[in-house]
What does this fold into?
Amino acid sequence: MKIKRIEHVGIVVRDVEKSRKLWEGCFGIPLGEVEEIKEHPVKLALYPVGESMVELIAGTTPDSKHAKMVAEGKGGLNHICFEVEDIDAALAELKAKGIPLLDQVPRFGHAGCRIAFIDPSATENCLIELAQLPADHA
It folds into this structure.
């Protein structure tokens, strides 16, 4: 598996709009984009930092996974995402090594990326996401 870079670090927040004050006002990091993914339901704010990004994640409904995490005091640093060259090959390699996966096949994430998560039981309780960017990604 070829890991190209840290694509982003995901942080679960209560409210993306309120959290933007910290990232833009305090740290002076310009917003890259805001994206809502209705299937999960989640709202993302992406902040480019060098070759990587900080991804703020907020649930958009009270019963969403991320809203529940915040309500339970489990917000904050959530996961690290590695960009991989070929996500299908990466998942096949991990499966062959006996690494448990949360996603057996890739699904779609931010900006049309194909993503999959590794089961944290295999990574010392660190949630790791793999992402393959679309071929036309700038």
Summary: The mean pLDDT is 95.
